[in-house]
Amino acid sequence: MPVPVQSLPEWPADVEAHPLLVIDYQLLKSGDKEEIARLWEAGTTLGFWYLKNHGAEQDFVAMWGMGEDVFKLPLEEKMRYEQGDEGLSFGYKAVGHYIVDAAGSPDPVEGVNVAKDDALSYPKVSRREYPTVINDLMGPVITPFVEKCVDVSNTLIDIFNDKLGLPEGTLAKFHRRNDFSASETRTIKAPANLTPGKLAIGGHTDFGTLTLLVNNLGGLQVLPPGTTEWRYARPLPGHMICNIGDTLTMFSGGLLNSNIHRVVPPPGSQSKHDRWSQVYFTRPADDTILAPLLESAIISEAYNKLTPERQKSLSPRVTSYEWFTRRQKNYRTKNHKGAETWAKNRGTEHGRA
Fold it and tell me: Which residue from 19, 148, 236, 242 has the least number of CB within 10 angstroms?
């Protein structure tokens, strides 16, 4: 089992972390207006925040255990369940199968993704087959994890829906439980002792609606709006790190910020340990058309103030499936043809004023 945060080296005293607002999930659930206002502040500024009292801490840890079981399998066995190069990300990802920059540098991390659709339909196969060790843990570990993450995501989505002045249920209809989507879990292991400054995941915006994340070590860096200095986002025990993704930025006409971030080796003595990440990505149903929801006066007013270039980047008018597979396909090392491939995997970071 990966070493828990509490047993790892302290955060280095000489490394400053960027402050994130701490949001209390239970206060959000109770409809606390002040806490909802703070969530809105986080979503419309940095686009990242801590979430406490979410009740899923042990579920995240259990998912790391699942990942450890998968990564111990022989490579030949794991590669039977590899994601492939056609734009879907469910399944196993070997070291070096993603690029991290325009030069095509390969990534140093190993990962495995499980589709929301498979976790919620098990034992029925909805999207793909998985190794036996994953199937054995669907009932006790993976499905409960997905259920909790779906509940958290739905709560946040409903709050943002109201704050955006949308009719009740507008965003929810794009994220129905039983509609096929690219929503998925992702378990990642980055090895200890990486070269300082080496990118584990290159700078990017997230593809979908919301991201829920727990790390055992530092390494996540955010690029605060209007700056050029990368800043660490420090993991806190018992807290998720949540962030806005591209599709929520599009739906909101740019009001909610899908911020650029990356992953580098952990700071200080933390770099001597393997870095584990457990993520849940919430993404719209595959057939959802991505564009600002201009039926809201709040969104329409914000969108009309943007530059034409920024408006274009927020209104691709493609399906969620097309948006996701285009970006995913062009991250794959096998598909890399040059800097133009890297440009093709970019998201809403294009066209920012």
Answer: 19
DSSP 138: I
pLDDT tens digits, one per residue of 332-343: 999 999 999 999
Query: In the structure, what pLDDT confidence band is assigned to residue 353 with cuts at 50, 70 and 90?
Result: very low
CA-to-CA distance for 300 and 171, rounded, in angstroms? Answer: 16
Query: Does the structure show a pLDDT above 50 at 271?
Result: yes
User: Which residues lie across from 212 on neighbouring strands?
Assistant: 242, 280
Torsion of CA 32, 57, 249, 170, to 10 degrees: -60
**Contact call for residues 200 and 219 (beta carbons, < 8 A):** yes
Tokens (6 digits) for 286: 């595959």
Residues paired with residue 242 on neighbouring β-strands, in sequence order: 49, 212
Q: Where are the alpha helices (DSSP H) in 97-142?
A: 116-121, 132-137
Give dist(CA 177, CA 285) in Å, integer: 9
Place of tokens 């990486």: 194
Its pTM stands at 0.96
pLDDT at residue 351 above 80? no
Whether omega before 123 lies within 30 degrees of 0, making that bond cis, reads yes
Q: Which two tokens stand for residue 315?
A: 């209104």
Q: Rounded CA gap, 246 and 79, in Å?
A: 30
**pLDDT score of 206:** 96
- Residue 317, sorted as left (phi over 0), alpha (psi -120 to 50) or beta, turns out to be left
Sheet containing strand 201-204, strands side by side: 201-204, 261-263, 220-222, 231-232
